[in-house]
What we know:
Layout: E1 5-9, E2 15-20, H1 21-29, E3 38-41, E4 48-49, H2 59-67, H3 69-80, H4 86-98, H5 114-140, H6 154-172, H7 182-207, H8 211-214, H9 216-236, H10 244-269, H11 274-279, H12 281-300
Antiparallel strand pairs: 1-2, 1-3, 3-4
Helix pairs in contact: 7-10, 9-10
Amino acid sequence: MGDKRYRVWCEDGPRHESLTGERLLALAAAGEVDLDDRVALQGSEQWARAWEIDGLFEPAVVHALRMHREAIDRMHRSIRGGWISLIEYRRQRDEMLLREAGVSACRWARRSRPDEVRADAQESLVRAAAEGAAAQRSTRTPARPRTIASRVDRAAMTGSFTAVRANVTQILRGDLPGWAEPEVWLAEARRHGPGVVLRIGLLALLLDPLEPIVHAQQWLVAICAITAAGAMLLQLAAPPQIHAGVQRAVRMLVACVAVSVVLMIGKKVDLHHGLIGHFWPAMAGWQDQFSAWLQEALQRVGLTGAGTTTG
């Protein structure tokens, strides 16, 4: 970098003027200068990103950043839209870069994070100011009885909304969260699939005699599908390291497949009596009697023919 002097404009606030090349390198090594901070020669307005300055960061880091430049640019634009904070962006960007070969062994991966310290301090100040303002308001307004809404854990709600925003933003920019990776879903399917297939398959067989009459197995498929969709929505509101929603969704999806297989086989074998009724004449006779009784009951209440499919 020679005898040049530099100026730095950090995205999280600090600015530096008339820095020597050695001082600029030291600030980058200490984590004071981020990859996306702007750097220019002293007295110049031609700014460049810090990662574009030769020798400021290690080649493996710069190479990984170039590989993911388009995705990182989309992530960076989401800061202006208010979707994520600067610190959240840097954490997600760093996770992306650290997956590339050689980056985790660089000094950059082990750098200190004074920007996170500053962000935590700022959040503490904002929180303290909000608490002080709330305390001041409480001295001027009469106390009101607590309602159900006031007892809601607002911190948990805020965390859930933040998780939803982070997950949706990451998915929209084409970078899957950790819980959405196919390997996670396949691992859960291997871990829980056999047990779910056994249990739900037995339940589907138990409901087989009722399927031709009240569509019991079809209702079970619908319930499993709705539960799986709900579990995936709950996963969006969970932090990336928690996979409880994925576990429930995988179990319900496997259950849907298991019940659907039993349902299709039963209809293929005998549309009017199912598997058990086809091979057990006594069960087929009970099905016909129950179907006739149900038909008469529905006729009495004015729902003629509803709920039956037997021929």
